[in-house]
């Protein structure tokens, strides 16, 4: 079998052929795994497209639009992902049972914000993260991303407040603290002024423009 072939190749000193055989086998394995992953994505996408078709325009389809958008993104289908996430935001905002559970609105807005930022559409990305923070004021990630994007837009004074909020909400976020330190230096702000002192609670930045 395979062990005998390897032994014969090695015994004959044909190490080059053995190396080529090994590399070929590994390459085939990775190709099979990649094909299997694409198949999983394809089947998952088909499933959620079917579920959305069954739901029609019912607002509760939002969760399926969100999951579909995530799978489109993983499959490298960016335009389809943006459309699905946009649909998730549209329909989730129209749910009448929002008082019962949070839904996917802030999650879809943050996913979409990250995708827009990756495309260099920073103003649109900021609007999505700002809306996500409005939908979920406990989201330190939304606050962090607002600060990062505003800084990239050279709006450092505004960025500072968002990064302060992100750091207060999640003091263990090293990236938020690093960005806060850099932005504070740029605007000539003392870092101590941007951190919450014991027994003191500073207001979060407004989620409104």
Tell me what the structure shows.
- This protein is mainly alpha-helical and 209 residues long.
- Helix content is 70%, strand content 0%.
- It is built from nine helices and no strands.
- The protein has helices at 2-11, 15-55, 62-74, 78-92, 105-118, 122-135, 140-152, 156-169, 174-186.
- Helix 7 runs antiparallel to helix 8.
- The longest helix is centred in the first third of the chain and has 41 residues, at 15-55.
- Mean pLDDT is 80; it is low at 194-203.
Describe this structure in a few short sentences.
70% of the residues lie in helices and 0% in strands. It is mainly α and 209 residues long. Residues 194-203 have low confidence and may be disordered.
The fraction of residues assigned to DSSP E strands is under 5%
Q: Kindly name the structural category.
A: mainly alpha
Calculate the terminal CA-CA distance, rounded to whole Å: 70 Å
* Global mean pLDDT: 80
Low-pLDDT parts are 194-203
Number of strands: 0
- Calculate Rg over CA atoms: 24 Å
Q: What percent of residues adopt helix (DSSP H or I)? A: over 70%
List the helices and strands and how they pair.
Elements: H1 2-11, H2 15-55, H3 62-74, H4 78-92, H5 105-118, H6 122-135, H7 140-152, H8 156-169, H9 174-186
Helix pairs in contact: 2-3, 3-4, 3-5, 4-5, 5-6, 6-7, 7-8, 7-9, 8-9
Main traits of this protein?
single chain, 209 residues, mainly alpha, elongated
């Amino acid at each position: 079998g395979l062990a005998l072939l390897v032994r014969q190749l090695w015994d004959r000193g044909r190490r080059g052929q053995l190396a080529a055989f090994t590399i070929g086998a590994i390459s085939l394995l990775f190709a099979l795994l990649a094909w299997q992953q694409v198949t999983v994505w394809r089947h998952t996408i088909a499933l959620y497209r079917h579920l959305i078709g069954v739901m029609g325009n019912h607002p509760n389809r939002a969760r399926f639009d969100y999951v579909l958008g995530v799978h489109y993104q993983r499959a490298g289908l960016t335009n389809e992902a943006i459309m699905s996430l946009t649909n998730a935001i549209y329909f989730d905002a129209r749910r009448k049972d929002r008082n019962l559970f949070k839904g996917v609105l802030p999650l879809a807005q943050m996913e979409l914000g990250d995708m827009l930022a990756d495309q260099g559409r920073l103003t649109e990305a900021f609007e999505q993260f700002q809306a996500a923070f409005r939908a979920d004021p406990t989201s330190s990630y939304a606050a962090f991303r607002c600060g990062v994007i505003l800084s990239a837009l050279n709006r450092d004074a505004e960025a500072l407040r968002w990064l302060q909020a992100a750091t207060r909400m999640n003091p263990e976020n090293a990236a938020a603290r690093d960005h806060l330190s850099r932005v504070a230096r740029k605007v000539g702000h003392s870092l101590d002024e941007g951190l919450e002192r014991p027994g003191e609670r500073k207001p979060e930045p407004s989620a409104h423009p």
